[in-house]
Design brief:
elongated, mainly alpha, 2 domains, single chain, 9 helices, Arc Repressor Mutant, subunit A
Length: 179
């Protein structure tokens, strides 16, 4: 059967290209992402990268979207059974998980997140992630505390990525409770 007109030969190519960018960011940082490096990583012509992404910025936005969507899904799974009584300890445990088992993903997320200060597209994706955390906290913490708890969890996690020692869930919970 013939392929429909305009159908791609490789329907997963766009996502593979974006995932290759994520891998490069993980290994060598955002500065290592170029059309050539990404094409080499996923064994596609450089023209394919340019076909799907009109700029490195557009590629970084998609990489950021992929990473932050996964973190949002993880947040949803983690807090699904939380109650107002358990949300701080549950969120603290998630922060520790993201600092240990998911450290590489957390580093990528924050590296892209910080780039959002200068790039409107990245800012939009990063803001959506921050708003997702706020949304998940609504109904679990008092409305007047939502922004404070979200900012504390986010900021403290980023701060901890600079440290060699990972705090315990209890230590994180104390910080979050103080917020």
């Amino acid at each position: 059967m013939a392929r429909p007109k305009g159908a791609t030969n490789d329907p997963g190519r766009r996502e593979r290209i974006a995932l290759a960018a994520v891998e490069l960011i993980h290994e060598r940082g955002v500065g290592s992402v170029s059309a050539r490096a990404v094409a080499d990583r996923c064994a596609v012509p450089v023209a394919s990268v340019s076909y799907y992404f009109d700029s490195v910025s557009a590629l970084l936005i998609e990489a950021c979207r992929l990473v932050l969507q996964e973190r949002s899904r993880e947040l949803d799974r983690w807090l699904a059974a939380s109650t107002p009584e358990t949300v701080i300890t549950d969120l603290a445990a998630l922060v520790v998980r993201q600092l240990t088992e998911q450290r590489a993903t957390s580093m990528i997320a924050y590296e892209l997140y910080v780039l959002g200060m200068r790039d409107d597209g990245l800012r939009e994706v990063s803001a959506a992630s921050v708003n997702h955390l706020r949304h998940r906290l609504k109904g679990l913490v008092p409305p007047s505390e939502v922004d404070r708890v979200a900012a504390t969890a986010d900021g403290y996690q980023m701060h901890c990525l600079f440290e060699d020692r990972v705090p315990t869930a209890r230590e994180v919970a104390v910080i979050l409770q103080a917020a």
